[in-house]
Amino acid sequence: xxxxxxxxxxxELVIGILNMVLNEGSPLDRAYSRHFSGLKLPGEELARITTxxxxxxxxxxxxxxxxxxxxxxxxxxxxRLINAWHMFHGLAxxxxxxxxxxxxxVFAARLDEAKANPLLWDGCPExxxxxxxxxxxxxxxxxxxxxxxxxxxxxRTNALKCDRDALAARLEGEGxxxxxxxxxxxxxxxxxxxxxxxxxxxxxxxxxxxxxxxxKVAAALDVKPGMRVIDACAGAxxxxxxxxxxxxxxxxxxxxxxxxxxxxxxxxxxRRAGAHNVETRLITGSKTIKRLKLSADxxxxxxxxxGLGVLKRNPDxxxxxxxxxxxxxxxLQAHILGSYSRMVKVGGILVYATCSIMPCENRxxxxxxxxxxxxxxxxxxxxxxxxxxxFDGFYLARLERIAE
Length: 404
Ligand SMILES: C[S@@+](CC[C@H](N)C(=O)[O-])C[C@H]1O[C@@H](n2cnc3c(N)ncnc32)[C@H](O)[C@@H]1O
Known about the structure:
- The protein is α/β, with parallel strands linked by helices.
- It is 45% helix and 16% strand.
- The chain has 18 helices and 11 strands.
- Strand 6, helix 14 (260-273) and strand 7 (278-282) form a beta-alpha-beta unit.
- It is globular.
C-alpha cells in the first residue's frame, strides 16, 4: 500500500489508464503497456500506479459510489475518484490543480453506506453476485471477497536454466526479493516492487511471471521426458513452457491455437526459455485435430473461459460483457473437450483446465463429457480457489482414456 499520495503525473497516468480500459474497452495489460512504453519509470513508481489503478478497477463501484461519479465521466471527474481513493486509505490528497474534492462529512456518510453493502465493498457487479450465488452457494461470499484483493506477484522457475534456489539468489543480487511458495515447488512469490522484466535473469530466460495456482495446471499432466504432448489451447505459451521444462527438452511438445500471433509470441518466449522441443501449429479447422487422432500421451485443454477465477489480476472482465459471453464460451468449451479429446492415446491423460471458479465451466463440463464418452474416466479434479489458496482461481480435471 502507498505511504504517500500520488504525484500529479502519476494521478494523470492512473486516470488515462482507467479511461482506456473502462471507456475505450482496452484490456488492462494493453493499457498499462501503452501508457508506460517509453517512460522508463522506476519499478517503485510503476508499482504505485498499478496498485492504485488495480484497486480502482477491482472495486470500481465502491470508489464511484464514494466519489459520486461513474466511469463515463472519468475525463471530467477522474480527479474526484483519485481523491476518494486517497481518503479511503487515510492519505493526504495529491496536489492536482483544479481537482474535484469531496467534503469530509459526505465522504463519511457514503463510506458507511458502502460498509453495509457487500456488493460495493467487494467491488462486485450484480450479475456476478447472482451467478456466484447460483453456482457456488454459501462459499461464494468468501470467494467474492477474496477476488477483490490485490493479487500477489508470482514467478515460475525455468528448470531448463536453473533451480529455484539459484533463481532466488540471483534475483536478490538484482534487487528483487522473493519467498519460496511451499505447495508449488516451481513458484517464488516476489515481495519487492522491482521491475522484474528489466532483470538480466529475465533476459536469460530463468523465469516467467505466472501465478502459483496456474503452475499447478501443467504439473497435473505428469509429463515425462520423451513423451508426445499436445497443448491444444496454448495461447502465448505460459503452460507450454512449463511443460517443456518438465520434459527436460526431450520428446515432442506441440503447441496449438487458433491465433497465429499468439503462437508467434510463444516461439519467441520458447527461444528465450531454451525450450527447444516446442513445435507450433495453427488450428485451421477440424482436420488439424483429426490428423492427430490417438497420437498423444498427454493433452492439455486450457480452454477459453470467463476468467472469473482471475479477477484479482484482470478485474476489468467484471465490468465488460462477460455475462453475455458466458453461454458462448461454454459451448466452445464443450466443443473443444468433445473434439480435441480424440488426440489422446489409449492409456493417455487429458487435462481440462480453466481460470474460472464457476462449476458450469468446470465440473459441469467434465460430467457432461464423461456422460457422452464412457471411454474416458475421471482420475481427479481440483478447484483452486482464491479464498482457499490465496492464488488466482483455477480448475483442473485429469481424465484417462481407457478405450478407443
Ligand atoms: C485460456 S487461454 C490459454 C492460455 C495459455 N494456455 C497460457 O497458459 O498462457 C485459451 C486459448 O484458447 C485459444 N482458443 C480459442 N478458441 C480455440 C479453439 N477453437 N481451439 C483452440 N484454441 C482456441 C485462445 O486463442 C486462447 O489463446
